[in-house]
Amino acid sequence: MAGTGKTHLREAGSTLLRVEDLQVEFPAKGGRRVHAVSGVSFDVAPGETVGFVGESGCGKSTVARAVMHLPAPNSGVVNLDDTELGTLSAKRLRETRVAMQLIFQDPMASLNPRRKVKDLVQEGVEIWHRGGDRHALEERTRELLDDVGLDSATVWNRYPHELSGGQCQRVSIARALMMRPSLLICDEILASLDVSVQSQMLNLLKRTRAEHGLAMMFISHDLGVVKNISDRILVMYLGKVAEVLEVDALDRETVHHPYTQLLLASVPRVTGERIKPSVDGAAQDLPSPLNPPSGCRFRTRCPLATDRCAQEEPQLEEKRPGQFIACHHIS
Ligand SMILES: Nc1ncnc2c1ncn2[C@@H]1O[C@H](COP(=O)(O)OP(=O)(O)OP(=O)(O)O)[C@@H](O)[C@H]1O
């Protein structure tokens, strides 16, 4: 089995989203395959925010798309509210997917440049509920635009290119909320924004999730950002889960997976100044997902690695209450 264990999953009835043994491979030249996501399991409780962190290429976006079945994973099970997505007809899948809204990193690219803000926010609802009450729809659009910190009267007839990146991202959030989702999947949505706009957006997301009772998957390569907004964190490395932990465990004097340790060491510490995370610098050492290392995928960069790590894949085990680590050397 390619899994990294499922001991961290909670009782099925208590979760909104339950993902088991997700596997995604992409075809590559010469008949080879990119092992992008290999046996990832996690769950998200109603109203909970789970952060996904790991350096570029570790499979975070692929997990997000596989959860949405955009496209369906090669194998694995995705249950949303006890509905298994893989068993649904194409029509039922499209309907069920509305409850999960995905927001991307580049708001300009994900908003149709030829549509005005009011239409962008309304278009999802128009597709799903044709012939609804136009007045009520416009009211809700105004409300949501104001809610996400845009002056609805000002931006109503504007096009995306007339807005800043932060404003576009706010439109994307309003557009997602319009569909009344139970799960918001945010894929690197702060990465293209200035640091000051990032913190405004984090506050907006926290307020929004409380007001709308939303669960979130929050994806970022920046552990500092993920820590700020998440209840629990999944640390991913080369298509696998290295560690799952409650966010409080990050502040405790506790032992972590050696990869989490590397990420922690690269979180900016100087107030007001961004230090380039050292983990980005180490990215060239990332092995290829075309040919991932045997056993523990982190072993080629791990200071603790031994022969056992090459031969035997570590499974996620609960090392401290609420803290699951996949490492032979952490007890
Ligand atoms: N359509 C595709 N075809 C081939 N390989 C792909 C495809 N999409 C993703 N990959 C590869 O799968 C791996 C995981 O990519 P993914 O985008 O999920 O990572 P990520 O952690 O989200 O990184 P980033 O933050 O850079 O988006 C990478 O090696 C990537 O090159």
UniProtKB/TrEMBL annotation:
<keyword id="KW-0547">Nucleotide-binding</keyword>
<dbReference type="Pfam" id="PF00005">
    <property type="entry name" value="ABC_tran"/>
</dbReference>
<dbReference type="InterPro" id="IPR027417">
    <property type="entry name" value="P-loop_NTPase"/>
</dbReference>
<dbReference type="Pfam" id="PF08352">
    <property type="entry name" value="oligo_HPY"/>
</dbReference>
<dbReference type="InterPro" id="IPR050319">
    <property type="entry name" value="ABC_transp_ATP-bind"/>
</dbReference>
<comment type="similarity">
    <text>Belongs to the ABC transporter superfamily.</text>
</comment>
<dbReference type="InterPro" id="IPR003439">
    <property type="entry name" value="ABC_transporter-like_ATP-bd"/>
</dbReference>
<dbReference type="GO" id="GO:0015833">
    <property type="term" value="P:peptide transport"/>
</dbReference>
<keyword id="KW-0067">ATP-binding</keyword>
<keyword id="KW-0813">Transport</keyword>
<dbReference type="GO" id="GO:0016887">
    <property type="term" value="F:ATP hydrolysis activity"/>
</dbReference>
<dbReference type="InterPro" id="IPR003593">
    <property type="entry name" value="AAA+_ATPase"/>
</dbReference>
<dbReference type="InterPro" id="IPR013563">
    <property type="entry name" value="Oligopep_ABC_C"/>
</dbReference>
<dbReference type="GO" id="GO:0055085">
    <property type="term" value="P:transmembrane transport"/>
</dbReference>
<protein>
    <submittedName>
        <fullName>ABC transporter ATP-binding protein</fullName>
    </submittedName>
</protein>
<feature type="domain" description="ABC transporter">
    <location>
        <begin position="17"/>
        <end position="263"/>
    </location>
</feature>
<dbReference type="GO" id="GO:0005524">
    <property type="term" value="F:ATP binding"/>
</dbReference>
<dbReference type="InterPro" id="IPR017871">
    <property type="entry name" value="ABC_transporter-like_CS"/>
</dbReference>
